[in-house]
Amino acid sequence: MTTALRRRPVAVRATLAATALLTLAACGSGVTEPAAEPAAGDGVTYTNCGREVTLDAPPEAVVGLSPAQTELLLRLGVADRMVGQAQTATAPLPEDVRDLAADIPVLSEDAPPTREVLLNAEPDLVTAPTSYEFSAEQGFADLDQLADAGVAAHIASGGCAERRMTATVDDLFTDLDTLGRVLDVDDAAAELADAQRAVLDDVDERVAGRPQVTVAQVYVEGERLSAIGAGVEYDIVRRAGGANVFGPDDAAFADFFAAEINPEELAHRDPDVLVFGVHDEEHERATRAWLAATLPDLSAVRNGRLVAVSSADLFPGTIGNVRAVEAVARGLHPDAF
Predict the structure, then answer these.
(1) Which region is the signal sequence (predicted)?
(2) In terms of DSSP bridges, do strands 82-85 and 62-64 run parallel, antiparallel, or are they unpaired?
(3) How far is the C-alpha of 302 from the C-alpha of 274, rounded, in Å?
(4) Which residue among 130, 222, 232, 299 has its CA within the 20 to 30 Å range from the CA of 4?
(5) 126-139: b or e for each residue (b if 16 or more CB lie within 10 Å)?
(6) pLDDT digits (tens, 9 = 90+) for 153-168
(7) For residues 273 and 304, is the Cβ–Cβ distance under 8 A?
(8) Using CA atoms, how far apart are residues 109 and 68, in angstroms rounded to an integer?
């Protein structure tokens, strides 16, 4: 059943899409969700994570639920339509867009905003990197609650629950196409997509024909060590010319893209390079110190082949995915740049 409520000038209608669409969206070769299509009048209909959403007009009040999504919205030129940004303390915005966000209200710092805080901002559209930002059990507004309040939502294609394990860097282009149409900024979205494709094409040319370098992508928080074995993070290493030592075929990653491991397991795999996500400079220093103290004989540590990447750049459906591909490629194949 389709529902429609009007709490702002933009009306939102959401329905469940066909089961076949979910199956297609979950395949590993790319997102196959239909492109956003015109609705009656100036509206648009799009399919996202198995839900069909119709807006009767371009959104006038938008919220980015993570720094990565906020950056994407800023680069699409809709800063004047943003009524909120969230999780601002989890990663800094890139310096070239930081000033654009200076006057955008901060709805949360270390976690997604609560249901009440988000709805009080009165958005027409909220964008998120994953479905986690809509977890009702965490106190966040879920997709049905948002729809009931007349608020549309867009989750990065690679962050949909059924897609998270098989997401790829190229999912970004599906999201840019959709958001360009939804926000009525098609030209800006196309220009941004072309620029990102150019970066990826350049990396492809530089690493083509070079021997793959073995890589482990890890995350260190305190004394806990986690490895990445699936998802867009896995694809970032692949696109950069690396061979992941952890992968989807490992039992630890059968159900989730990340798993806690012990240092001995990482030492056994002994990758040439370690890629690790960091929140800020302090976290990077702490991670490097922990690796040096805990795994001094690991080849990557002993040879100083450690590549730090902003954690925000590893979320699905972000411009940062492209930055991460280039940064990792430079770390794996420095003589190619």
Answers:
(1) 1-25
(2) parallel
(3) 11
(4) 130
(5) bbbbbbbbbeeeee
(6) 999 999 999 899 999 9
(7) no
(8) 13
Instruction: Tell whether domain 210-336 is in CATH 3.40.50.1980.
Output: yes
Domains 3-184 and 210-336 fall in the same CATH topology? yes
Beta partners for residue 257, in sequence order: none
Residue 22 has pLDDT above 60, yes or no: no
- Work out the widest C-alpha separation in the chain, in whole angstroms: 64
Six-digit token string for 19: 């089961």
Residue 172 in tokens = 């970004």
CA–CA separation, 196 vs 185, rounded Å?
A: 17
Pick from 77, 152, 101: nearest CA to 122: 152
Q: Could you name the CATH architecture of 3-184?
A: 3-Layer(aba) Sandwich (3.40)
Among 2-16, 50-64, 70-84, 99-113, which is the least confidently predicted range? 2-16
Please give the structure tokens belonging to residue 86. 């969230």
| pLDDT tops 80 at residue 20 | no
Give the C-alpha separation, 59 to 16, whole Å: 21
> So what's the pLDDT on residue 7?
40
| Mean pLDDT on 70-86 | 98
